[in-house]
Design goal:
Radius of gyration of chain A: 13 Å
Strand content of chain B: over 45%
Oligomer: heterodimer
Mean pLDDT of chain A: 93
Number of strands of chain B: 11
Shape of chain B: globular
Helix content of chain A: under 10%
Order of helices and strands of chain A: EEEEEEEEE
Strand order of the largest sheet of chain A: 1-9-8-3-4
Helix content of chain B: under 10%
Structural class of chain B: mainly beta
Low-confidence stretches of chain B: none
Order of helices and strands of chain B: EEEEEEEEEEE
Largest sheet of chain B: 7 strands, mixed
Structural class of chain A: mainly beta
Largest interface: A-B, 20 and 26 residues
Number of helices of chain B: 0
Number of helices of chain A: 0
Shape of chain A: globular
Chain lengths: 111, 112
Amino acid sequence: DAKTTQPNSMESNEEEPVHLPCNHSTISGTDYIHWYRQLPSQGPEYVIHGLTSNVNNRMASLAIAEDRKSSTLILHRATLRDAAVYYCILKGGGSNYKLTFGKGTLLTVNP
Amino acid sequence: DAGVTQSPTHLIKTRGQQVTLRCSPISGHKSVSWYQQVLGQGPQFIFQYYEKEERGRGNFPDRFSARQFPNYSSELNVNALLLGDSALYLCASSFNSGNTIYFGEGSWLTVV
């Protein structure tokens, strides 16, 4: 399975934008970039996914580098409820039926 | 619409016992997956079922088994429980095998 690299932790202030980076230099052409987040004591929550173009939804934006070797999840205005572990996951090819989680990035949001 | 529902939410078992965890997928979803999450780590894939057939299996011993019913609900069974099986067991569903996956809140299993 293609691997992703994320910072262990990041910190932000409430109502400021947050940019969560992810490196995936071994991504293949059929891999989609998925982001999930997990709040304390809850199951993972789907955030967003994309293939090549930048994507926006009500939760976040996903910016994908032109060579697809990195991506950035953007939370436009962080709230205390956004404090969670954020996972960047490649999904596709022969293993597109499952998610391979790494350690993710623990986001702390300060009031 | 209801999301993925799991039961029980919490349970305590003794070493050597057997446990059955249950999952109901989102309405219309035909694929169900199971994940194990040990404290401090990301979820690890156990099984995926689609249309009642096993389509994928992670690196777990044969003590772990699962099945999917005609209504697409699923059960995860773990036999001969070990202390190391203590974890959050997550069920996830998707419309078909390759679509976006949605998780339930999980079943917390403690083995003593």
